[in-house]
Amino acid sequence: MNELAIPGLPEYAFGGDYNPEQWPESVWQEDMALMREAGVNLVTVGVFSWAKLQPTENTWSFEWLDRVLDLCHANGIKVDLATATASPPPWLGLKYPSTLAVDETGVRMAWGARQHFSPSSSVFKKFSLALVEKMVERYAEHPAVVMWHVGNEYGAHTHRCFSEESADAFRAWLITKYGDVDTLNERWGTAFWSQWYSNWDEVMPPRKTVYFPNPAQQLDFKRFSSDAMLELYKAEVEVIRQRVGRQIPITTNFMRFFPHADYWKWSENIDVISDDWYPDLADPESHIEGAMGADLMRSLGAGRPWFLMEQAPSAINWREVNPAKPKNAYRRWSLQQAAHGADGILHFQWRASVRGAEKWHSGMLPHSGTDTAVWREVSRLGQDLKKLKPLLGAKSDSQIALLLDWSSWWALELDSRPSTRLTQMEALLDYYRPLAQAGYSVDFAHPEQDLSRYKLVIAPSLYLISDLGIERIRAASAGGTNIVFGKFSGAVDAEEGVRVGGHLMGLRDVFGCYTEEWHPLVAGQTEEVLIGSNRGEVSGWTEHIRLLPGSAIEGTFSTGDLAGLPAIVSKTSEKSKAWYLGCTPNRDMIASLLEAICIQSGAAPVLYSVPQGVEVTKRSNENGSFLFLLNHTGVEQSIEIGQASVDLISAESFVGAVTVGAGEVRVLHLP
Questions:
Q1: How confident is the model at residue 3 (pLDDT cuts 50, 70, 90)?
Q2: Where is the Beta-galactosidase trimerisation domain (predicted)?
Q3: Is there a common fold for 41-246 and 614-670?
Q4: Which of 212, 505, 513, 658 could link 499 by a cystine bridge, Cβ 3.0 to 4.6 Å?
Q5: DSSP reduced 3-state for 620
């Protein structure tokens, strides 16, 4: 049987956040009728309704929510019920200021926006769990509820807090990790700059300082802050699970490559991975990031179906300029998420608000009603998704994995680096882009996972690697997996310290080299690398690499201080091959290099000879295989797939070549 993301919803999910508390009750019946017309079958209810549910500390008002859930049930619309803890009511901050977050300079945040709570506040936790208990007691067995939704976008606005209560919690977290202050001193390197701690009371969060804080302290505080938010989530889950069986999944919404929460750790506690995606329309390659983020979500769920929990059908309202989505982009980008494993497409929000900070954020039902282009596109997508039921639970098969570790990301982008111009996202895109454009299916993996099932594992910039990560890399290489390390990888250990002996200790025999010295390039500076007879520019970063026995030079610097020295090194072992790139190649160079590495690794794309600008993915289940062809160009394209197929959406049949209109999508069933 195909695995359903939500057992109580055996069809492709379509809908969004429904906030009826913003509207008079006389509007609700119209909402139901229009939802049915658009094909909506799932709505998220109650995300920002705490102030309506608990107007004062000692009063509760659930009757309106009773009517909303009953109305949804009567109209055949399932509910993802939120715990409403994402935005505390004003009375809580006024009466209990300790619930409010404090920034690194000591300023306490005010209420009046959203998510202004301190993740370490015991008072906030007490009141939030009391609300959840009331919700679960009342709605645990409501027939409309098929999923529970805890919080909302954890860390989007208050991913850390520097209050005294947070400092106490940080110290407790450190005691659990290190045991005693002497071990902390050793791992943090506090002998430097006379930072040695004699007792735990001296240890505090990395508040505003006169110069660089201790980088190990900064890194641990980022880990602690992610864990503090996760503990809030887990506490709410525990309350829900006391009354709600495992057949009802529990989720919270991620934010793709969000830099303030370790989603690998979070994903272990989430039944259905859910994600929010708001592409930057100023980026002509936003579809590349769209595919990459979707692959991350699929990977976080170990390949299981996931949900796009939020997107906008058109414009948003929080960037400097917020244009409407281009023609066909909304539908194509929505189906792109399905192409990469999503079994639900939802939005923020159902009906566009007429007041408040997000009234210019487009809704499924626009201000101008149903006689609008947005409504017609929403309704078209809703009908299209009904036809995708056969692919529910279908999975992807990837032979290539990119390594991503949030601890390494955090450490890479701290302030005391050889270059603060290096970013994790840029490094990931540098390697993901050419693989996606060549038609390869790509997973993401944590370096401490078992990597042996992949033919090729790539670490675009894995600055920090733990001892266990080194063991996993070595085991994968010994088992036949090819390995690629990009710039500044393997530089420090799990506590942000350089291993005795220097770069790549524990992996030098795998790569046949190490870096003697980093040579970052200033803005606008480029150097040249020679690979065979081909020359290409590198920018941003170079390294002085030292060779070890058994290695081979794949590329050489031909200009600058490193001229004549290796830029790219490989080493072939008994069962595999490893490459180290001590530079940032330009797009043509990295594409050519990865193409050769994929061929040597035996990794195959989903399809060969796909036109530029056409994205191809494949999902399979017991009903067969499903090939997605997404045309991101402005002209019709023809793709040879080599077998008979039927388009699930249009019902057209093809033999061999398939045409895809400009900006359009085909979802082909391959029996």
A1: confident
A2: 399-598
A3: no
A4: 505
A5: strand
In angstroms, the CA 126 to CA 467 distance is 39
For domain 41-246, give the fold: TIM Barrel (3.20.20)
Whether the predicted pLDDT of 434 surpasses 90: yes
On whether the pTM is more than 0.85, the answer is yes
Contact 109, 158 (CB under 8 A): yes
CA 206, 208, 210, 215 torsion-angle sign: positive
In this structure, which amino acid lies at residue 506?
A: G
The secondary structure of residue 109, as a DSSP letter, is P
Backbone dihedral angles phi then psi of residue 214, each to the nearest 5 degrees: -70, 120
List the chain domain ranges.
Answer: 41-246, 400-601, 614-670
pLDDT at 468: 98
- Given pLDDT bands bounded at 50, 70 and 90, which one contains residue 656? confident
The CATH superfamily label for domain 614-670 reads Golgi alpha-mannosidase II (2.60.40.1180)
**Residue 636 annotated in active site:** no
Q: Which of 153, 236, 289, 377 is catalytic?
A: 153
| DSSP secondary structure of 187-249 | HHTTTGGG---SSGGG-------SSPPPHHHHHHHHHHHHHHHHHHHHHHHHHHHTTS-TTS-
Closest CA to 342 of 379, 286, 290: 290
Residue 541, SS3?
Answer: strand
310 given a catalytic annotation? yes
Catalytic residue among 236, 310, 496, 527: 310
User: Could you name the CATH architecture of 400-601?
Assistant: 3-Layer(aba) Sandwich (3.40)
Instruction: Determine the 3-state secondary structure of 563 from DSSP.
Output: coil
| pLDDT tens per residue across span 58-104 | 999 999 999 999 999 999 999 999 999 999 999 999 999 999 999 99
